[in-house]
Write a structure and sequence with these properties.
With 384 residues, the protein is α/β, with parallel strands linked by helices. It contains 15 helices and ten strands. The chain has an eight-stranded parallel β-sheet. It has a two-stranded antiparallel ribbon with strand order 1-2. Helix 5 (114-120) links the parallel strand 4 (105-106) and strand 5 (126-129). The longest helix is centred in the last third of the chain and has 32 residues, at 331-362. It is globular, with a radius of gyration of 20 Å. Bound molecules: flavin mononucleotide. Flavin mononucleotide is lined by residues 25-26, 39, 77-80, 107, 109, 128, 156, 252, 274, 276-277, 279, 307-310, 329-331.
Length: 384
């Protein structure tokens, strides 16, 4: 098999190895997928300034995100059903991130539970919270994240109701998959995935089953999750969540300068400029296109991160040059996981690190913390 040299290679291997329902779940956006595509396309429009004859020795990608040291400013974003891309996926990805020196964020909608991930890691990870109508369940999740010594709570604001992703409906997405003839045939041609999955007990939502009231079996679980996202979530809720949590708080899903100002006023530690990877409001602008105006609005008051469409170390550098202090990747690590488990996640991170390092050097900088707008190419204004 040809070596995987870029994230697109890992995506193709994952496409072959992961059952279609779960590969499609990762590789999809809402409705026409226009925002999903724009996230990637808008990065490609940004160009670098090539600089020469600058000393390139002693380079470093080390930085900090919310005060935590990172080997490069790239965190793994929270993604639901990660344990369906590969058996025990969240535990493997968390271990890969820990060894690499970057943050891992566990989703509320994960397959492996908070306690599962805590049991296989030594350093604190981050926990992403969805606010459900069942407030006892939410309080309990926050307390469990505290007990597991998570070092940040990532509160997702852009999923009060679920955006429609056509592929998931057409594929009948569920965890575990329903044993229809089509699904069984699809799994049968991916024996590697099946054997790994047979070797684990973790095949449904680990943070929910056994913790939320009235969710005992699979049939009640699917209706519970569909009904549970709280459509009344408001800025007031951020207050009590912040108080109950008492630690570092990151607000995820900001795409508008006005919302960014409201977010900064909550006293949170960081915001993530994000459109949920194009999975919620189709037709919204790409994350990278709105980053500069959000940095301009609140960059002096709160740490600004960005996610959506990052597929290379070059994209990471572009985001940093436009004022992000940190970046988050979703699909790139999921493709790595689907392609090769923990080693695949490490490979995805290594690919991004190498691209980031070489690009930084060719732009004439040695320290990632020195990346700024002067690294980006702006065509000279035409004179008549
Ligand atoms: C398969 C998948 C599942 C996701 N699940 C969640 C989730 O449970 N919680 C959340 O806050 N964001 C979730 N997201 C959004 C990611 O955290 C992140 O915003 C997005 O993936 C970034 O875009 P990228 O995939 O282009 O890097 C999910 C994204 C994907 C692709």
């Amino acid at each position: 098999m040809k070596p995987s040299l870029e994230i697109a290679d890992l995506k193709e291997v994952a496409r072959r190895r992961v059952p279609r329902m779960f590969f499609d779940y990762a590789d999809s956006g809402a409705w026409t997928e226009s925002t999903y595509r724009a996230n990637e396309e808008d990065f490609a429009k940004i160009k670098f300034r090539q600089r020469v004859l600058v000393d390139m020795t002693n380079r470093s990608l080390e930085s900090t995100m919310i005060g935590e040291k990172v080997s490069m400013p790239v965190a793994l974003a929270p993604t639901g059903l990660t344990g369906m891309q590969h058996a025990d996926g969240e535990m493997l990805a968390a271990q890969a991130a820990e060894e690499f020196g970057v943050p891992f964020t566990l989703s509320t909608m994960s397959i492996c539970s908070i306690e599962d991930v805590a049991s296989v890691t030594k350093k604190p990870f981050w926990f992403q919270l969805y606010v459900m109508r069942d407030k006892d369940f939410v309080l309990n999740l926050i307390d469990r994240a505290k007990a597991a010594k998570c070092s940040a709570l990532v509160l997702t604001l852009d999923l009060q109701i679920l955006g429609q992703r056509h592929k998931d409906i057409r594929n009948g997405l569920s965890a575990p998959p329903k044993l229809t003839l089509l699904n069984m045939l699809d799994m049968a041609i991916r024996p590697r995935w099946c054997f790994a999955m047979l070797g684990t007990k973790r095949r449904t939502f680990g943070n929910i089953v056994g913790h939320a009231k009235g969710v005992g079996d699979m049939s009640s679980l699917s209706s519970w999750t569909a009904e549970q996202f709280d459509p009344q979530l408001s800025w007031k809720d951020v207050e009590w969540i912040k108080q109950r949590w008492g630690g570092k708080l990151i607000l995820k899903g900001i795409l508008d300068a006005e919302d960014a100002r409201l977010a900064a006023a909550t006293g949170a530690d960081a915001i993530i400029v994000s459109n949920h990877g194009g999975r919620q409001l189709d037709g919204a602008p790409s994350s990278i296109s709105v980053l500069p105006e959000i940095v301009e609005a609140v960059g002096d008051r709160i740490e600004v991160h960005v996610d959506g469409g990052i597929r290379s170390g070059q994209d990471v550098l572009k985001a940093l040059c436009l004022g992000a202090k940190g970046t988050h990747i979703g699909r790139p690590f999921l493709y790595g996981l689907g392609a090769g488990g923990k080693d695949g996640v490490t490979l995805a991170l290594s690919i991004i690190r190498k691209e980031l390092d070489v690009t930084l050097a060719l732009c004439g900088k040695r320290l990632i913390t020195d990346a700024g707008p002067e690294l980006l190419y702006k065509p000279a204004a035409k004179t008549e």
